[in-house]
Amino acid sequence: MNIAAETSCLCGKSGKCSIYNRTVCRAGSVEDIAQLNRISHQRTYPRGSVIQAQGEHCTIVGNIVEGVVKLSSTSVNGDDHIVGLLFPSDFFGRLFAEESRFSYEAATDVTLCTMSKPGFERFLDDHPAFEREMLKAKLDELDAVREWAAITNGHTTMQRIATLLYVFSRRSINQHLHGVTPETHIVHIPLSRRDIADYLGTTPETLSRNIQTLARGKVIRNINAKHFELLDPAELIRHSGETRADLDRIAPV
């Protein structure tokens, strides 16, 4: 069920908006942002709620302010598969399309800065600077997806797990967790073990064994099912089989 609480938006109030400098908003003038603010609202969705279902008529678009959204696709035989994750500052929704190709579900409690899709499309038509910034953002997103596919294709299960844990460690910086700062290296895992296994193409049992291997090697310290402490970032990168630069390209902050 799609359950959301709506409030007035902070869009354009850069002193209060936590994602202002990482979204298309930074491309606009004061007048542009004021106009955008008039069509924007903040909505909150509890964990597990569907923001937009696959095949549903697209009505809203916007940015993740807090929390994590998972994208999934249902196959012809009815199986759901996670195809992507959206973190704070990421754009959600499909512009210039009638139906959503994926299901957007709140993996955690989520706050979104939402806009009417037709209204935002008209806004882009009238504001070329925003349109260019949006195009650049979507191309960056496409590049990151291709990097992820290239990195994980043919890699071992451990390499895929280490890569994803590194992505979580990078993106946790923007998740505004209570009492957590980048210096603490406490990483939030927004998905269940079953969801992570599905995303990585492995089993929950294999996933757990590899995570325990990392814990025994003092690369990470398990805190609970949803959190771990990153003890040795360099060793986690080594386990991924990639360079820090390659990993940072698929997990911008």
Describe this structure in words.
The protein is an alpha+beta fold and 253 residues long. It folds into two domains: 5-142, Jelly Rolls; 154-250, Winged helix-like DNA-binding domain superfamily/Winged helix DNA-binding domain (Arc Repressor Mutant, subunit A, Orthogonal Bundle). 38% of the residues lie in helices and 23% in strands. It has eight helices and twelve strands. The strands form three sheets. Strands 1-2-9-4-7 form a five-stranded antiparallel β-sheet. Strands 3-8-5-6 form a four-stranded antiparallel β-sheet. It has a three-stranded antiparallel β-sheet with strand order 10-12-11. Strand 11 (220-224) and strand 12 (227-230) form a beta hairpin. Helix 4 (157-171) packs across helix 7 and helix 5 (193-200) packs across helix 6. The protein is globular. The two termini are 31 Å apart. Mean pLDDT is 83; it is low at 175-182.
Write the topology of this structure:
Blueprint: E1 5-8, H1 30-38, E2 40-45, E3 50-52, E4 60-66, E5 69-74, E6 80-86, E7 91-92, E8 103-106, E9 110-116, H2 117-126, H3 128-152, H4 157-171, E10 186-188, H5 193-200, H6 204-216, E11 220-224, E12 227-230, H7 233-240, H8 244-250
Antiparallel strand pairs: 1-2, 2-9, 3-8, 4-7, 4-9, 5-6, 5-8, 10-12, 11-12
Helix pairs in contact: 2-3, 4-7, 5-6
Considering DSSP H and I runs of 4 or more, what fraction of the residues is helical? 25-40%
- Which regions contain 5 or more consecutive residues with pLDDT less than 50? 175-182
Q: By helix and strand content, what is the structural category?
A: alpha+beta
Cα-to-Cα separation, first versus last residue: 31 Å
What is the string of SSEs from the N terminus onward? Answer: EHEEEEEEEEHHHEHHEEHH
CATH topology of the largest domain: Jelly Rolls
Q: Looking across the biggest beta sheet, what order are the strands in?
A: 1-2-9-4-7
Largest sheet: 5 strands, antiparallel
